[in-house]
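Q: What would this chain look like folded?
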Amino acid sequence: MATKRGGEGFWHRLARRLTSSNAELVSEQLAREAELAGCQQIQRARVRERVHLRGTIQAITLSPELDKGGLDVELEDGTGSITLVWMGRRLIPGIEVGRRIDVWGTLTISEGRRVIFNPAYELGP
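A: My prediction, written as structure tokens:
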């Protein structure tokens, strides 16, 4: 009799690992880590509410507009992605692609994308 862990049996987990892409497995791991830390999932985070998210930095860009210039960071948690914007910043030590980060802030919509402006953050390993 196969033992079950997380609602799945051994053979089901093995089949998933063999048939899933590496990106899918990484996304599942990110989502699991965020859930275990008590964070909200990006896909379930609600606009105009204070959120606590955990994920991995996927991209960093600088906004060239003088009035809105800032550091834009794409955060992915395995369930979705969101943009973090630090207004007036060009560099934040430790913010780099592939780094895990926890963020706190109010989720909003700006130019059709989900954004948190000037979030509080804590860098992970």
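The chain is about 20% helix and 40% strand.
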